[in-house]
Each structure stands twice: as C-alpha cells, then as structure tokens.
Specification:
The structure holds 2 protein chains of 2 kinds. Helices cover 0% and strands 59% of the residues of chain A. By secondary structure, chain A is an all-beta fold. In chain A, strands 2, 4, 5, 9, 10 and 11 form a 6-stranded mixed β-sheet that branches. In chain B, the strands form 2 sheets. In chain B, strands 2, 4, 5, 6, 9, 10 and 11 form a 7-stranded mixed β-sheet that branches. In chain B, strands 1-3-8-7 form a 4-stranded antiparallel β-sheet, with no helix packed on it. The chains are: A mainly beta, B mainly beta.
C-alpha cells in the first residue's frame, strides 16, 4: 500500500545550524504538503508543492518537490529556537492524504 | 483563514463511559473530515474519513463500533469513543478538507482532544 517515509526521525541541532528533513513516497503524488506541530500543539499547514521539481521558500525555509513527484525535502537555514517542533510531510494522491512519520527537531540554544 | 474548532480540548472519564468529540469548520464548508489518533512522539494515525451525509470510511484495524463517527452537516463531524477503556487514552485530532485560505485539498487541523480514561 501507499507509504510515505520521512527521515530522520529525530534531529538535534545547535542554534544557527541548518536542518533538513526528507520525505519519500512509494508512489507518485499529486501534491505534497508540509505541516509543523509544536510540542503540545496541533499540525499547522506550512506549504503545498504541486509541480514536478518545484521549489518554494518561506524566509529561512526552503521546500523542494522531486522531479518524479515522489520525494520532497524541507531545509531550514540557521535554525532558531522557534523552529522547534515536529515537521510532517503529507502526500496527496488518490483523494487521500498520507502523512510521513515526522521529524522531531530540537534546537539547542 | 480557515479555522477548525475541536471540543473538548481535554477530557477525563471513567472506564466504561462514552465520550463525544466535536469538530467544526467555522468559516468554510468541509466536505470531508478526517479523524486521527496520535500517540506521544509519533505520527498521525488516520482512523477514519468522514464524508458529509454518508457513512465514514474506517482504516484497517479501527473498530467502527468503538469509534462512532457522524458527519451530519458540512460544518460538523463528531467522534464518539464508546465504552472507553484506559487503552483508548490518546490525543485525537480532526482535520477538515475544504476551500481553505491556502487553496483546495489543504488540511486544516483542530487543536486536538486529549482523552484520559481512568
């Protein structure tokens, strides 16, 4: 069945270091979305990528969608303590959302 | 922007009782709502997909008689945990799919409901 894998599961970085999480789908996706869940909170929509090879930026965050529309990445430049949380990718295909396993980011001041 | 209200945020109940959780889309019509369960430090586990006016579609391994879902209107879906037991204690989150501010096919999540069964 459809699977969306995400790595790494956990990441600890020093404040100011960069961070990247990767998302891989077993099948081609219609689009991919990224969500952030702060500790104790609920997932909040960050961005949606639709086109093959698409790259979008939100300040220090860079999102990429692979050419085959089966993988995606989220890169954070110069992490800050406010970046702490779990980042989930969600692949949309066949009228269903498939969430990745999430990457929990800890930023050490 | 799109807002989904989920109530209650916290609930503690005795074993054997039933608990109802409500999920409302406040400023848009949600044709589809999803119910997730999340264990500590884990990903979201889809329990069921709720479509307005029809029966919910449950994921494999989720007991439909245990977790009753009703989507009576385009703005309201409810999840009832029947005869709750301590193993049902978890964080339950709903999400709605609709014409959110970010475009179609984007999920807006409720704040979640933390259920503790004693």
């Amino acid at each position: 069945g459809q699977q969306v894998m995400q790595i790494p599961q956990y990441q600890h970085v020093q404040e100011g270091e960069d961070f990247t999480t990767y998302c891989n789908s077993s099948t081609t996706l219609s689009n991919i979305q990224w969500y952030k869940q702060r500790p104790g909170g609920h997932p909040v929509f960050l961005i949606q990528l639709v086109k093959s090879g698409e790259v979008k930026k939100q300040k220090r965050l860079t999102f990429q969608f692979g050419e085959a529309k089966k993988n995606s990445s989220l890169h954070i430049t110069a992490t800050q303590t406010t970046d702490v949380g779990t980042y989930f990718c969600a692949g949309f295909t066949g009228n269903q959302f498939y969430f990745g396993t999430g990457t929990s980011l800890t930023v050490i001041p | 922007g799109a807002v989904v209200s989920q109530h209650p945020s916290w609930v503690i109940c005795k074993s054997g009782t039933s608990v109802k959780i409500e999920c409302r889309s406040l400023d848009f019509q949600a044709t589809t709502m999803f119910w997730y369960r999340q264990f500590p430090k884990q990903s979201l586990m889809l329990m069921a997909t709720s479509n307005e006016g029809s029966k919910a579609t449950y994921e494999q391994g989720v007991e439909k008689d245990k977790f009753l879902i009703n989507h009576a209107s385009l703005t309201l879906s409810t999840l009832t945990v029947t005869s709750a037991h301590p193993e049902d204690s978890s964080f339950y989150i709903c999400s709605a799919r609709g014409q959110g501010y970010s475009g179609a096919n984007v999920l807006t999540f409720g704040a979640g409901s933390r259920l503790t069964v004693l």
